[in-house]
Amino acid sequence: MLIVIPGIGKIRLTHNIENFDLTNAQDLRLDYYAAMTPQWLNVRTAKQTAGVGNDIYLRYRYFDGQQVPVAMMASGVGIWFDNNAYLQRRQAQIMDTHTFGDEPKGRDDE
After folding, report:
1. What tens digit of pLDDT does each residue of 50-101 get?
2. Each residue's pLDDT tens digit, 22-52
3. Is 62 exposed, middle or buried (0-12, 13-18, 19+ CB in 10 A)?
4. Measured between alpha carbons, how far is 18 from 27 in angstroms, rounded to an integer?
5. Nearest residue to 72 (alpha-carbon basis) of 29, 4, 7, 15
């Protein structure tokens, strides 16, 4: 799935998604947690009745001497960290197992 954030760019969501066909914007529901810092974007299908969807927090980090957008991907009730997502495949391959220290706990850490 590709999410386009105006002024930022495109983010491809590949984690834990199988055969998801987004045919139009009405199939997707975006929300956020008003009382939470950092401000996470919650992504679900429009007709989803169970589960909490996936959460995305976009921040900028340095890569190869320049600032690049890095999306922190999380899921679950506890907003458990899954992985970081990058705009370019090269960045993702190099930074595959790197964490920045601001990621929330993962499922195994709870």
Report:
1. 777 888 898 999 888 989 889 898 888 888 888 888 888 888 888 888 888 8
2. 566 667 778 887 788 888 888 887 777 777 7
3. exposed
4. 16
5. 15
Helix (H, G, I), strand (E, B) or coil at 94: helix
CA distances from 58 to 5, 38, 45, 48 (A): 10, 9, 20, 23
CA–CA gap between residue 38 and residue 74 (Å, rounded): 13
In 9-98, at which residue ranges do the beta strands (DSSP E only) sit? 9-12, 28-32, 41-45, 54-63, 66-75, 80-86
Q: Are 81 and 105 in contact (CB under 8 A)?
A: yes
Q: Say if CB 75 and CB 43 are below 8 A apart.
A: no
Q: How far is CA 67 from CA 27, 32, 61, 86, in A?
A: 32, 25, 5, 12
Residue 28, token pair as written in the block: 């997707």
